[in-house]
Specification:
Helices cover 39% and strands 23% of the residues. The strands form two sheets. Strands 1, 5, 6, 7, 8, 9, 10, 11 and 12 form a nine-stranded mixed beta sheet that branches. It holds the Pfam family tRNA-synt_2.
């Protein structure tokens, strides 16, 4: 069933987000949706795209999972504040809080770090909740004062009885898992996120272990990375970005040759990125935090619904 109120909310918040960034001096940009490179993260799978040119030559590309690397090319070229509201696509991600295609708000600011990203994210999210309230949506999130901030080490100590999240043997023992990465995510999903879902205030979880640094700078074995949680659901992910050629080459090589962004690396060979921070915010997850319910309550015509539509067709 189509809820017209969801369309009204989506429209109002997209306008609010654009106004927020314009007031901050950002430029809205567009980058390719169909790209020749896979996402270098092992936990993220691209949707493949097969196409051909006028001569019939075929190419295997991918729908992007994020506009990240092409936006970073723009930062390299001298743009200092850019944002994008983009449809992105992630294979296998179908469920109550996931959809194969969804809307991402992503932005980069040169000369700043992840603490600035947390500040921007908080202010923008507050703007969106305030706008939703004027539209008649009942807000059951505590937005008074500043958002909470806890390190990953603090929440693992508080909610998972792990004294030191950097102690791989301890994390594996507490989780009952043989691999540190598996143990970390098991405790995050089984212990941490349920506990965070009971907290009324939005919460920044920051300073991740180095092994989960993604594209963030690392200092003292901790990644300058944050995630914003609202009602136990991850809404945004931000970093103090890596800037050097060798760092990115290492990240790309881990996934394999289809993940090696040759164009981006060619630029970095000439000079590094300027110091910058970047944030990716799941727009549909933000709507879920405001409206409540599942992803299908805020995205009309989800992939799951379309799959069932085709499978149920008897014509």
């Amino acid at each position: 069933m189509i809820d017209k109120g969801v369309f009204v909310l989506r429209d109002a918040l997209l306008s609010e987000i654009r106004s927020f960034f314009k007031e901050e001096g950002f430029i809205e940009v567009d980058t390719p949706f169909i790209v020749p490179y896979e996402n270098p993260d092992d936990n993220v799978e691209n949707v493949k795209v097969l196409f051909s040119d006028f001569k019939g030559k075929e190419f295997l590309f991918f729908l992007h999972t994020s506009p990240e690397f092409f936006m970073k090319r723009l930062i390299w070229y001298g743009f200092d504040r850019i944002f994008q509201i983009a449809r992105v696509f992630r294979n296998q991600e179908i469920g109550d809080s996931h959809n194969l295609e969804f809307t991402m708000v992503e932005w980069y600011r040169a000369g700043k770090d992840y603490t600035c990203g947390m500040d921007e994210t908080e202010r923008m999210v507050k703007h969106c909740f305030s706008k939703a309230e004027t539209l008649g949506f009942k807000i059951d999130v505590d937005l008074t004062g500043s958002f909470l901030k806890l390190t990953v080490d603090e929440v693992f100590r508080e909610f998972a009885d792990v004294k030191d999240v950097l102690d791989e043997e301890e994390v594996k023992k507490v989780a009952g898992r043989e691999v540190y990465e598996d143990a970390f995510f098991f405790l995050l999903v089984d212990k941490i996120e349920p506990a965070l879902s009971q907290i009324k205030k939005p919460l920044f979880l920051y300073d991740f272990p180095e092994k989960f640094s993604a594209m963030a700078k690392v200092k003292d074995r901790k990644a300058e990375r944050f995630e914003l949680y609202i009602k136990g659901i991850e809404i945004a992910n931000g970093y103090t970005e890596l800037v050097g050629y060798k760092d990115y080459l290492e990240k790309f090589d881990k996934k394999g040759k289809r993940a090696v962004d040759k164009g981006f690396l060619k630029l970095l060979k000439n000079k590094p990125l300027p110091d910058c921070e970047g944030v990716a915010l799941g727009f549909d997850r933000l709507l879920m935090a405001i409206k409540g319910g599942k992803i299908s309550d805020v995205i009309p015509f989800t992939t799951d619904e379309l799959i069932r539509e085709v499978e149920d067709w008897k014509g």
